[in-house]
Amino acid sequence: MPLVDPATLIAAALAAVAASVYLYYFSSQANQPDTHPLQLAHQSSVASVRESPNESPVYRAKTTPAGTQLLSAPSPALTTLTDALRAVRTLRRPDAVQFIAAEKVVRVSSDEMAARASGLAAGLIRLSARASSVAILLPASPEFLVAYRACLDTGVVAVPISAATPTASIHAILRHSNASVLVTSAELAMRLADSIKTTSLKHLVLTGELDGSAPAEALRSATTVVSMSELEAGEAPEKDSVVAPADPAYVLYSTADDDASALPRGVVITHANAMAAIAGLLSNLPASQVITAADVYLSTASMANPANLNFINIALIHACSICALETTDAEAFATYSYSFRPTFVYLEPLISRDLVQLFYSHIVKYPQLEYKIFMAGYRRVVDSLMRGMTPKWSFWDFTYFRHYRNVIGGKLRLMFIDGPSTPSKSIEWLRALHGARVIPLFGSDQTTALVTAGAFYDYASAIDTHNVGAPLACNEIKLVDSDPEVGLTANDKPYPRGAIAVRGPNVATRLWNSEKPVELNDGWLELPFYGEILPNGTIDVIGTRQTVTKSVLSPTGLLLVERLERALSSSRAVTDLCVVVSDPASKSIAIVAHPRPMELFATAKKLKKEYKMKQIENYPWCANYIREKLVQTAKDNHYEWLANIPVENINVKLVSEPFSVANGLAKPDGSNNRESAKKLIGSLSK
């Protein structure tokens, strides 16, 4: 048998190599965009008439253009959360399980959860037939869901309170809410013993048991103490309570950041408000991504978190499995995600940043050649995303990115995040590594925490412009001129800017236990945020009333602190940072930052210098290095004025830990705690 011609073998080998290179490397670029570019070119419609010459046009979601009715409910038959939950009763899924994660995992079937909620609802009616509100002070747990569902079943107003809330604030909320029933744990109840008599509480419903201590006796003498399991053992009510869309569903409480003595402010979220927000959020998803009973929701925030409550509502009314994990620890998130295999999550800024840091710290440990190969693949994936396409199967997906997706369960398809406070670089990493649609959200307590959402197919959203998407189909948005001192107007160039105002059925109009309603102007609610409308109809939140200030440092005379922080956060040298300017006349700027440990480790090795992260403040070269990196990042992001500030006027203070609530550098919502940063910096020279 004649041998094969060597030239033929070589040609065949070269053809195989060429085909492999194409399939593994270029195939991700050969695909068409996931949606037509014109669908993303204009993500909101604009009303033709302004209500005032001093404001921008009215912007609406494309699905509800001017002249049509805003969405108010997911379906005409379901107008309250109570209706939606009762409709789910008909879904007999005894094998369905709701996972609740804490230090140990407790599995509760859907039938058991419904039975417990029904039993507790009857127990609450027996306990206090006239209770107008029930406070729920619990960590993420089955008991929180049971208590919350019981309130919705009985038509009683729920007052959810995060277990991480300072004791003084809990006291203030309980006093202001006039709640007669508190559902909490024995441990948390003990924190309230000193001032329980100053509240209107009549009944404590506890998980766990009180001991024989003096604080426990004080609780018993001031209230009726009953176990939650005892109340759940009662029979279900004979008939369902009647609940109307205008009835309050729950109250969102917040305390003033700048005045600890100020009274808390409770915003009433009606059933109509909650259902409108759900409808607006769900309508933003394509038909292929609808939420069903087969989905698994992983909650990492407090169950009292305003944004998180929306997703808990969505999961409850769709009979999804719910995994509750109250943490900002990315390792804990990855561990439980691997077990629970969630399909959608809501991540607060602190955990999303920590998750990026966790994976990045693993990647930079690759051998140098492999690291360069990985980064080449990463850039290829980002390039595909920025051109509107999801990278299909490729060499990079097979060797790297599939591994990171599997670490968090492998089934995650929707990742909702807090848009304004999550850095663009974090969003880019989450999209590239995990293959999920990362959808930025924006809102406030008065709007059930939802006003805008990024488009499902807009993969460049919140990366190139850091926009938070277009208005939801349940509300409309416009910009109004800011205070003259700030000077933002609808006529600003290149894009209109101003205070963000919103109108729609998701906007709350009542305050709890207050005769003063939420201030509206012809239905418009002005939020404490400043925004900018981009050409594609999306919104960039450029700052808050507390952070947008005058400054001689900026060429425009106006310093958008949060926008500057987002730009500097794109540096690979830092994980978290906070910019501090003492006053408008100051010619100095200070930056509190947590550097990436592996970045400093690699630099120390290269420069043959010593450093220890736990004692980072004792190594001046580290601060100088981070300053150089941030100055270069400022140049790259067109902040030449910062790069031109004398080095001695740029004070960099490094901290050894990421920003967190525990170390005081972050607030519970993930935003920077500027007062703590100022204390670290001290007074700046002028």
UniProtKB/TrEMBL annotation:
<keyword id="KW-0436">Ligase</keyword>
<feature type="domain" description="AMP-dependent synthetase/ligase">
    <location>
        <begin position="92"/>
        <end position="511"/>
    </location>
</feature>
<keyword id="KW-0067">ATP-binding</keyword>
<feature type="region of interest" description="Disordered">
    <location>
        <begin position="665"/>
        <end position="686"/>
    </location>
</feature>
<dbReference type="InterPro" id="IPR000873">
    <property type="entry name" value="AMP-dep_synth/lig_dom"/>
</dbReference>
<dbReference type="GO" id="GO:0004467">
    <property type="term" value="F:long-chain fatty acid-CoA ligase activity"/>
</dbReference>
<feature type="region of interest" description="Disordered">
    <location>
        <begin position="39"/>
        <end position="61"/>
    </location>
</feature>
<keyword id="KW-0547">Nucleotide-binding</keyword>
<dbReference type="GO" id="GO:0016020">
    <property type="term" value="C:membrane"/>
</dbReference>
<dbReference type="InterPro" id="IPR042099">
    <property type="entry name" value="ANL_N_sf"/>
</dbReference>
<protein>
    <submittedName>
        <fullName>Medium-chain fatty acid-CoA ligase faa2</fullName>
        <ecNumber>6.2.1.3</ecNumber>
    </submittedName>
</protein>
<dbReference type="GO" id="GO:0005524">
    <property type="term" value="F:ATP binding"/>
</dbReference>
<dbReference type="Pfam" id="PF00501">
    <property type="entry name" value="AMP-binding"/>
</dbReference>
